[in-house]
Recover the amino acids of this structure.
């Protein structure tokens, strides 16, 4: 979140790595992979939306942080 607030250029690589860590954790066991809490990362989605609004260039498009939600283009 701090990278997004400060417009840090490391945000792009940090959000991708955070999404990878989210996936790694939530797919580590069969029980976790069925837990709906892991289907979408609300904290990462919020940080990405903040960065998008602040026009920080980044690209993360995965099931856990979908760019269509980040940009508000849900149709």
């Amino acid at each position: 979140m701090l990278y997004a607030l400060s417009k840090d250029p490391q945000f792009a690589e940090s959000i991708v790595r955070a999404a990878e860590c989210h996936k790694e954790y939530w797919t580590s066991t069969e029980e976790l992979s069925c837990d709906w809490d892991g289907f979408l990362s609300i904290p990462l989605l919020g940080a990405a939306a903040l960065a998008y609004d602040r026009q920080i260039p980044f690209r993360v498009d995965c099931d856990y942080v979908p760019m269509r939600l980040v940009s508000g283009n849900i149709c």
In short: The first helix runs from residue 2 to 5.
